[in-house]
Amino acid sequence: MSMIAKFVGPRYMELAKAWTPSLMAFGAAGGLLGLYLTDWKVITQYIPLYGGKYKETRDI
């Protein structure tokens, strides 16, 4: 028996198992929404080959 099950109880463990797929779907949707709402440059600058287009050149 896991340590969490000792504190929570079997009924709530079964409820957590039943809700896990839904929570994962909502978490993924929330993550994608957060990615959509952020500045794309912040995320895409770390993608190899694609992030090179953000390198700034300074004209002195």
Automatic annotation (TrEMBL):
<keyword id="KW-0812">Transmembrane</keyword>
<dbReference type="GO" id="GO:0006122">
    <property type="term" value="P:mitochondrial electron transport, ubiquinol to cytochrome c"/>
</dbReference>
<dbReference type="InterPro" id="IPR015089">
    <property type="entry name" value="UQCR"/>
</dbReference>
<dbReference type="InterPro" id="IPR029027">
    <property type="entry name" value="Single_a-helix_sf"/>
</dbReference>
<dbReference type="Pfam" id="PF08997">
    <property type="entry name" value="UCR_6-4kD"/>
</dbReference>
<protein>
    <submittedName>
        <fullName>Uncharacterized protein</fullName>
    </submittedName>
</protein>
<keyword id="KW-0472">Membrane</keyword>
<dbReference type="GO" id="GO:0005743">
    <property type="term" value="C:mitochondrial inner membrane"/>
</dbReference>
<feature type="transmembrane region" description="Helical">
    <location>
        <begin position="18"/>
        <end position="37"/>
    </location>
</feature>
<keyword id="KW-1133">Transmembrane helix</keyword>
